[in-house]
């Protein structure tokens, strides 16, 4: 596999909490998919989980180079856990189109937390072409 791009983001829990308090359910639905919301619901550390997902979405948008322009939505990036607990990225919509145009075949993701911050690092991969 060949590395095509890298994206990284850091989110402070307090800033995300303020955003969600200020805009409520509307912000939750705009930023997080139904699956992401369900995965965080009822967890003692739900804000930590959401902050990690938020950072991951930002990191993925950075590696694609899109931001929220050109029809890209927050929910075009979904971060779920596989059976082993590793975060997995699912792309949809306009962001998926942009990633495919760049030849991105896979995105690996790592998320970690402290008591106040979540950080995510995303790497875009493609099959290495033989020389």
Describe the SSE topology.
Blueprint: E1 2-12, H1 13-31, H2 34-40, H3 46-64, E2 77-81, E3 87-91, H4 93-101, E4 106-113, E5 117-126
Description:
This protein has 131 residues and is α+β, with helices and mostly antiparallel strands. It has a single domain (2-126), classed as Ribosomal Protein L22, Chain A (Alpha-Beta Complex), CATH 3.90.470.20. 41% of the residues lie in helices and 30% in strands. The protein contains four helices and five strands. A three-stranded antiparallel sheet has the order 1-5-4. It has a two-stranded antiparallel sheet with strand order 2-3. It is globular. The two termini are 14 Å apart. 31% of the residues are buried.
CATH topology annotation: Ribosomal Protein L22, Chain A
Helix/sheet category = alpha+beta
CATH architecture: Alpha-Beta Complex
Spans where pLDDT lies below 50 across 5 or more residues: none
Q: How many domain modules?
A: 1
| Overall pLDDT confidence | 93
Strand content: 25-35%
Distance separating the two termini: 14 Å
Characterize the largest beta sheet: strand count, sense, and whether it forms a barrel. 3 strands, antiparallel
Which geometry do the CA atoms define? globular
CATH class: Alpha Beta
Largest sheet, spatial ordering of strands: 1-5-4
Count of alpha and pi helical runs: 4
Provide the CATH superfamily.
Answer: 4'-phosphopantetheinyl transferase domain
Q: Radius of gyration over alpha carbons?
A: 15 Å
């Amino acid at each position: 596999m060949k590395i095509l791009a890298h994206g990284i983001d850091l989110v402070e829990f307090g800033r995300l909490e303020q955003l969600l308090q200020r805009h409520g359910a509307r912000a939750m639905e705009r930023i997080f998919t139904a699956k992401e919301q369900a995965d965080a619901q009822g967890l003692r550390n739900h804000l930590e989980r959401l902050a990690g997902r938020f950072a991951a979405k930002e990191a993925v948008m950075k590696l694609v180079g899109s931001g929220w322009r050109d029809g890209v939505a927050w929910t075009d990036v979904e971060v779920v856990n596989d059976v082993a607990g590793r975060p997995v990225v699912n792309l949809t919509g306009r962001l998926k189109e942009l990633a495919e145009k760049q030849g991105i075949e896979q995105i690996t993701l790592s998320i970690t937390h402290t008591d106040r911050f979540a950080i995510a690092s995303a790497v875009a991969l493609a099959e290495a072409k033989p020389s």
